[in-house]
Each structure stands twice: as C-alpha cells, then as structure tokens.
Amino acid sequence: MRHGKKGKQLGRIRKQRKALLRTQAVSLVEYGRIRTTLPKAKLLQPYVEKTITRAKKAGMNTYRELRKDFNELTVKSLMEKWAPLFAERKGGYTRLIKLKPRTSDASPMAFLEFSEKPKDEPKKAGKKAKPAKPAKTAKKAEKLKSEKPKSEKPKSAQPAKQ
C-alpha cells in the first residue's frame, strides 16, 4: 500500500519523473504556457509554484539552490522575469485550463500557464506573417550590376572532345 506517498507515478521510475518535471518546468518558464496531459499538468503545478516561491527570495544562495535543478538561462529567467512579476502574490502563480481529449488516444489534455504575463511580452494574435526579404535580393541585384561580365572564349577556340 502507498501510505503517506503523495503524487502520481505517471508510470515512470523516480529519476524519469524528476527529469520530466524539470524539462516541463523549463519549457513553462521559457514559453509561459505549455500543453500537456492533465495528470502531468497537475503534478507539475505545485513543483513550479514552489520553484517560483523559492526564486522570489533573490540572493546567491537561492541562485545556487535553483541552479541544482535548472540551467543558468532558466534560473536567470525565473529570478529576473517571473519572480518580480509575482512579488506581491503569496501563491497561485499558475493556472490550469482543461482542453478536449487528444484525438489519438483520448488522453485528457490541459494548458498550464502563468496567471500573469510579463509587460515586455507582446500579445500574440494568431500566426505572424513572415517578412519579405527585399534587402537581400536588392543587394544581389546591385552586386550583379556592378560585376563585369566574364569574357567567354569562343566555342571554336575550345579544344574538341575526343
């Protein structure tokens, strides 16, 4: 029996579960929102909340503690971007939005996202159109105009193939 054991196992051993939580937490910090299965999101939510709470205590010791679990860019993003955003809050840094089940295997899906967005991040309104690259083609056209045409030998001067 699993007396006193909290948290789901997700069909993984401890090391795999820990690695899964770390990678998903890194993705959440980087993108601000991830789409995953509902059980994984429910397991990840308290992990991220505790990490944000830890990051709010800015200092070298906190940096070293977070550096044990995450890479340097993630720790920097946590401490400089997300922790100041939630400085006044005492919890509830993330929200869970349930989605319709996945079509392939009917797994319940969910979005896990931060409850606030940084002010420097623009709102995304659908897909962005790719900008045209006229500068590159203009440079090429200019280069071709400036180059002197190569002088070709007349065909009669070339040796015949045998």
Describe this structure in words.
- The protein is mainly α.
- It has a domain at 14-114: Alpha-Beta Complex (50s Ribosomal Protein L17, Chain: A), CATH 3.90.1030.10.
- The protein is built from five helices and three strands, in the order αβαααββα.
- It has helices spanning 14-31, 38-55, 60-69, 72-82, 134-146; strands at residues 33-37, 94-98, 109-114.
- A three-stranded antiparallel beta sheet has the order 1-3-2, covered by helices on one side.
- The longest helix has 18 residues, at 14-31.
- The protein is elongated, with a radius of gyration of 27 Å.
- It starts with 13 loop residues before the first helix and ends in a 16-residue tail after the last helix.
**Mean of the pLDDT scores?**
86
Fraction of helical residues: 40-55%
Return the string of H and E elements. Answer: HEHHHEEH
User: What's the number of extended β-strand segments?
Assistant: 3
CATH architecture of the domain at 14-114: Alpha-Beta Complex
Query: Termini, distance in Å?
Result: 88 Å
Radius of gyration: 27 Å
By CATH, the topology of the domain at 14-114 is 50s Ribosomal Protein L17, Chain: A
Q: What is the tally of helical segments?
A: 5
Output the strand order for the largest sheet. 1-3-2
Shape type: elongated
Uncertain stretches: none
**What about the largest sheet?**
3 strands, antiparallel
